[in-house]
Amino acid sequence: MSKHHLGRMSAYQFTLLFRSLTALMLLPPFLIDFRLSSSPVFWYLVIAAGGLEVLGIYSQSLGVKKDFYSTFSLANTAPLFTLFIAPFILPEKITVTLIFGAILMVAGGFIFYKIGGEISFHGIFRAVNAALGGILAKIAIGYSSGYTYPFITFIIGIWMMILISPFRKEPIRWHIYRPSIKRLLPLSLFSAIATLLYYMAVQIAPITKVNPLVRVNLVFGFLLSYFLLRERTHVKRKILASFLILLGSILVSMS
Q1: d(Cα 62, Cα 239) in Å, to the nearest integer?
Q2: pLDDT band at residue 99 under the 50/70/90 scheme
Q3: Greatest Cα pair distance in the chain
Q4: Domain extents for the chain?
Q5: Residue 159: C-alpha distances to residues 30, 123, 168 (Å)
Q6: Are 254 and 214 in contact (CB under 8 A)?
Q7: Which of 88, 101, 108, 238 is most solvent-facing, going by the fewest CB within 10 Å?
């Protein structure tokens, strides 16, 4: 769905509108479970994480336009960056089983997208940002909740994008948003639900386990596209990739 809409607007315009609509979907849970912290540490973390998230999505949007498969293959390496960075910041135990499970899941992601000859630095940048953002989120959620934190980071990210718009060659063209809002609403709703579930998981489980396990979405995507969209290309390769991802997820869960 994202790739389809990126053909109609620039990566910057798409990111700004998509994030704004997703933030709107996150507003009701935020109001229901209102837990804003007055701690300066919380706000430093939220601002940093919000900026990283927007930069990561923007980079991924640029990468998808150039090389869809390479971008997502390399963006899928985020769990490895999480395992490397997290022990220096968080008191989370890294076991051999966890490392091996994460490697299997990342390998499955590479097979899924079958990376070609080009290396997408946009995908690598997205992976590093996702790892850092997840670690910062783990710390910040301790000051608030899995409902409050995502809404605040989305709002901060949106304002950051608006503030940098005068320094860009491409101005914000508000008139192109109206016809795109209706098309992006379903995608924004799915994004909001996935965001809430992700941060609820971060709140209760180690980020070194949550970030790898998120990659199981590739398996669900394969099954949905196979049965609902009748996409039957490279089925054997995707079955092998799904097997590696599921095996890796079992090892991660057991670690």
Answers
A1: 29
A2: very high
A3: 53
A4: 2-254
A5: 18, 24, 15
A6: no
A7: 88
Query: pTM of the entire structure?
Result: 0.78
Contacts of 217 (CB under 8 A, 6+ apart): none
The model's pLDDT over 25-47, given as tens digits with 9 standing for 90+, comes to 999 999 988 888 888 999 998 88
Tell me the two tokens of residue 214: 């998120």
User: What pLDDT is attached to residue 165?
Assistant: 73
What amino acid is encoded at 39 in this protein? S
Residues constituting the chain? 255
Per-residue pLDDT tens over the stretch 200-228: 999 899 999 998 888 888 788 778 777 77
Distance between CA 194 and CA 191 in Å, rounded? 5
Q: What is the 3-state secondary structure (H, E, C) of the chain?
A: CHHHHHCCCCHHHHHHHHHHHHHHHHHHHHHHCCCCCCCHHHHHHHHHHHHHHHHHHHHHHHHHHHCHHHHHHHHCCHHHHHHHHHHHCCCCCCCHHHHHHHHHHHHHHHHHHCCCCCCCHHHHHHHHHHHHHHHHHHHHHCCCCCCHHHHHHHHHHHHHHHHHHHHCCCCCCHHHCHHHHHHHHHHHHHHHHHHHHHHHHHHHCCHHHHHHHHHHHHHHHHHHHHHCCCCCCCHHHHHHHHHHHHHHHHHHHHC
How confident is the model at residue 79, as a pLDDT?
87
Query: How many C-beta atoms lie closer than 10 Å to residue 90's C-beta?
Result: 15
| Phi/psi of residue 27, nearest 5 degrees | -65, -45
